Amino acid sequence: xxxxxxxxxxxxxxxxxxxxxxIVSGDVTIGAGSRIMHGAVLxxxxxxxxxxxxxxxxxxxxxxxxxxxxxxxGDGVMIGPHAHVNGCVVGDGAFLATGSSVFPGATIGxxxxxxxxxxxxxxxxxAAGAVVPISWVAVGDPAQxxxxxxxxxxxxxxxxxxxxxxVYGAGxxxxxxxxxxxxxxxxxxxxxxxxxxx
Length: 198
Prior knowledge:
This protein is α/β, with parallel strands linked by helices. It is built from three helices and 24 strands. It has helices spanning 151-158, 163-168, 176-188, and strands at 2-4, 11-12, 17-18, 23-25, 28-30, 35-36, 41-44, 49-51, 56-57, 62-65, 71-73, 78-79, 84-86, 89-90, 95-96, 101-102, 107-108, 113-114, 119-120, 125-126, 131-132, 137-139, 144-146, 194-195. 38% of the residues are buried.
């Protein structure tokens, strides 16, 4: 289903396919030969989404465009079921496996792989052809790779990357109440969304 949101409508190439149960909302461009499968959600919140040619977005994946962090997906990319792709750039031929998460400001190089349940943190740069192993975490610019049991080492790098500012646009002293009040207002703007007839 296509929605006009925040004054913008999706643009879908005639050769692309959006499954009946997928949601495509706002400033989203979908290239030729791309396939957006059942339950996927592509939502251009306050930043655009650009999907290249021959991209497959599988069931229940979420792609989100953010202010200052558009979601730009290159050509020939596979985005697996339940993946979370948020305000990042994904190079041509990359593979984002089931349950993978890529956070705002991240860049995934051409042909890189983010395997099952792996995470690429905010403002992280993953080189072309790099592989983030199953459930591992990539963090930093350039990316360092850590197994999930190395939390203290991950945090030592991650705390320098401004997660709260990048994801929520909030300062370092913001409380959870501050962040959630702002997020409630932000997402409340969807009250004005309009379904686009086929």
